[in-house]
Amino acid sequence: MNIDGDGLYLVAGLALLLGAVLPRLLRRYAISAPIAFVGAGLLLGLAVDRTRLSPIAEPELAEHFAELTILVALMGVGLAIDRPIGWRRWNVTWRLLLVAMPACIAAVAGAGWLLGLAPATALLLGAVLAPTDPVLASDVQVQGPTTGAGAEPEEDDEVRFALTSEAGLNDGLAFPFVYAAVFAVTKGAVGDWALEWFAWDLIGRTVIGVAVGVGVGWLLGKMAFSAPSRTFRLADSREPVLALAMTLGVYGLAQVLHGYGFVAVFVAALVLRAAERNHDFHEELHGFIEQLEHILTWGILLLLGVAITGGLLAPLTLAGAAIGLLLVLVIRPLTAWVALAGTPMRHSERWVTAAFGVRGVGSVFYLAYAGADFRTDLPWLWATVGFTVVLSVVVHGVAATPLMRMLELRRDDRS
């Protein structure tokens, strides 16, 4: 049975209702809402035209849907972080980005090469699976901005802060490695493009993204909180749409200037958060973005489930499954554990941080973005990435509630 266009409105309404109920229903159980939505998508796939909802058949739809979801999530996590940015304050973040992430890419690419993949395909797989997810990891991230006179940004939960700040930045910083894989296919020998890639795609475009984020975030922060005219002082008029306007505007400007828009959006959110840090308007901005993020997340998880019912995982091989298992259960935990050596984190906090490298919507976006240059391996790549994302959703979704409770109980005992 296939549902027609009008019937899809019914499906959408039921999905939104389900999304409103599930988080409350599952709050006391070790089952996350993302698991339930993927499961609902598997069932929905039995009733709709699956061929039209496959990321292989509709790569542009998958790319832009995932892109918008990530953008909204990046604005949300940027607004949620209380801690002012700084080298020492963000020490765990820099370690996860500069040590764990490249090591993870290298390990996945190396495993893929050893299992028979072409070097460029192995590198693409490593880059696609590199970013941890700001969308599906809400159970282990900071819950929102702390505002008012009693706000104490330095008292953040270190585990939640590390996972939130890492997810906010590594979605954008995976781009250079995706480009490296594409260049390896389209531009030939590494020596022909390595210097240009390092100077422009790794350094130059990152700097542009950061500069756009800082500049626009500062300007909009001044306008929202201290503009001379009340007409432009959006914090007084309580216009939370500012968050969405900044998300889209900053991303568009950074992309037009050939910078990394994901980086720009997250940085802009941090800079806006720093303007009048204790103003309660930040809570309204975050709440508005959070609701939009939930709706987009529900949609993309439902579509992932539909695609799986439609055969997305059919080309999966033992090698692909092995790479997914290695990444989630071995590579990410070990690389992040090593990266966090020497930090003030306790052993239990360090292990939980290392283990919760949730893979999700970022991987879907990057594969949809770069897949056209890897047509021969594309079905296998989608099967491997789809398997890894579902594995991550299930493993991390089941483990999140009990492990975070364990950490909270240990902190209570120490205090």
Describe the structure.
One of its GO terms (biological process) is proton transmembrane transport. Keywords: Antiport, Cell membrane, Ion transport, Membrane, Transmembrane, Transmembrane helix, Transport. Residues 16-405 form the Cation/H+ exchanger transmembrane domain. It is found in: Cell membrane. InterPro entries: Cation/H_exchanger_TM, Na+/solute_symporter_sf. With 415 residues, the chain is mostly helical. It has a single domain (5-414), classed as Na+/H+ antiporter like fold. Helix content is 70%, strand content 0%. It is built from 16 helices and no strands. The chain has helices at residues 5-25, 33-44, 59-80, 91-114, 119-128, 158-173, 175-186, 194-226, 234-237, 241-256, 261-274, 281-309, 318-339, 347-355, 361-370, 378-414. α6 runs parallel beside α14. The chain is globular. Residues 149-155 have low confidence and may be disordered.
Nearest-integer average pLDDT: 87
What is the count of structural domains?
1
* Helix-residue proportion: over 70%
Structural class: mainly alpha
Q: Which CATH architecture would you pick?
A: Up-down Bundle
What coarse outline follows from CA principal-axis ratios? globular
The parts where pLDDT drops under 50 for at least 5 residues are 149-155
What is the CATH T-level topology? Na+/H+ antiporter like fold
Rg calculated over all Cα atoms: 21 Å
Number of strands: 0
Number of helices: 16
Beta-strand share of residues: under 5%
**Sheet with most strands:** none
Task: State the end-to-end CA separation.
Answer: 58 Å
**Top-tier CATH class:** Mainly Alpha
Query: N-to-C SSE series?
Result: HHHHHHHHHHHHHHHH
Transmembrane segments: 6-22, 29-48, 68-85, 97-130, 173-190, 202-221, 241-274, 295-313, 319-339, 351-369, 381-404
Subcellular location: Cell membrane
InterPro entries: Cation/H_exchanger_TM (IPR006153), Na+/solute_symporter_sf (IPR038770)
GO molecular function: antiporter activity
